[in-house]
Amino acid sequence: MQHRRRKHTVRNTTFIVVLLLLIGGSAYGMTRYRSIKNAVNSSFNASGITKERDVNKQLADKKPISILLLGTDTGALGRSYKGRTDSMMVVTLNPTTNKTTITSVPRDTAVTIPGFASQSPSKINAAYAWGQAKTTIGTVQKMLNIPIDFYALINMGGMEKVIDQVGGVDVTPTLGFTYEGYTFKKGVKAHMNGKKALAYSRMRYDDPDNDYGRQKRQRAVLMALVKKSGSISTLLNQSFISSLAKQTQTDLTFDDLTSLAQNYRSATKNLKETHLQGTGKELNDQSMEVMKKS
Questions:
Q1: DSSP 8-state symbol, 51
Q2: Does residue 247 register a pLDDT over 50?
Q3: 200 in the Ramachandran plot: left (φ > 0), alpha (ψ -120 to 50) or beta?
């Protein structure tokens, strides 16, 4: 099948910003508590869904938690409408096993979206457009049969800011291609600024593995930035945090992030990246990825 080349404004790499905040973000508060607490909390936006468990108790007891990360075109390139999520990942932090698992969910995953059964099966990326965070969380919980404790949504600008602020990242491409004016050579390590890293992880239709290949490249950029979390001190300025907060929406409070930094940092010692693997099928006149229930 020949795919029409499209230019997507937001991709999975936007999650880099949120993950960096989760892993090292509360160091901001420990260093400049009073100056940035309000900036971080300004991005708070309740999902509207009833939590499946007491998240405060989970954090207090240092139990594993799951965070749904979403990337959308909302606010990108001057847009103000509520679009579909181009990107979705579930991050599970387990301080007991000292492990963090990052699971990519393909945007074309076929699901039944709660409240929209008559339009099902639908692609999972429609959940946010139809019911925003509340509906998206409900859809993911039903599909994976796990509780989602928190969510975070971010746009493209935030990812570029973080990568540029830490001086860029080093990534070795697993695929050679040219995209958005950048050329990537397979097996040749490249230093990427924010725009180049976004281009590397944005390309989809020239990848033989299509969206799965894109997810793999996204996670490579994510891991490269996490390895530079030691550069967290370069992000310790209120203007940067305030700017980033404007591009983020989450039900994680500053106190939640502080608790994560204090009690869950050990979970980031071992990072595991994975994804849901489906089978392509035509459903409702659309190409979707059907996942096995197992």
A1: P
A2: yes
A3: alpha
